[in-house]
Amino acid sequence: MTSAKAYKDAALAAQLSDRVYRPSEDSDPSFTAEVEKIGGTAAHLCFQCGTCTGSCPSATRSSYRIRTFMRRANLGMKEVSLTDPDLWLCTTCYTCSDRCPRDLIPTDVIFAMRNMAAKRGIVPKNFLATVNFIYNTGHAVPNNDANRAARIKLGLEAEPETTCKYPEYLPAIRKILEAYGTKQLADKVLEGGQ
Ligand code: SF4
Ligand code: SF4
Questions:
Q1: Whole-prediction pTM value?
Q2: What Cα–Cα distance (Å) separates residue 77 from each residue in 29, 38, 47, 130?
Q3: Contact status, residue 124 vs residue 135, Cβ threshold 8 Å
Q4: Ligand 2 pocket, residue 45 CB under 6 Å
């Protein structure tokens, strides 16, 4: 004979009997569509298996959980996603994307959210400092004397076949960073101390 489960705590019992999904104020259905459009991956197919987080090198060293961001994408949780500092802890290694059993690309969900956050001017300063390195040298990690010496020791030219050797291509890189407002954002945030 079966009997209904009963909970001594009436408030808990009422809470557990509620089977209706109630979106929070931070729930914007258009967010899911926007993330999918920018990221180019069907994030709504995520079934929360956790393979992505289990594969993520950042997850073992931080509070960042890619599965959480996938869930937020599907619940339309725009504000918390775009303002969470953990959004910037993905290394973009694509391991999660290699292993997702639904063939999703969680990395590109993160890129989509980062793009949306950047449009609001929400970008960590160290990322914007990297923008300036690229603007000034064409490289996120510019060449330096130690690298040059190591390259020569290996029988290579001191400068690689990039803007290091062909600085005449730097203006084109600068044009791209300016066209998308990336350089202006870096200057504004870094100088303004936001
Ligand atoms: Fe979702 Fe894929 Fe991550 Fe599984 S591995 S939780 S399906 S994104
Ligand atoms: Fe983690 Fe980002 Fe690498 Fe995916 S791409 S495994 S989220 S660090």
A1: 0.80
A2: 8, 16, 17, 29
A3: no
A4: no
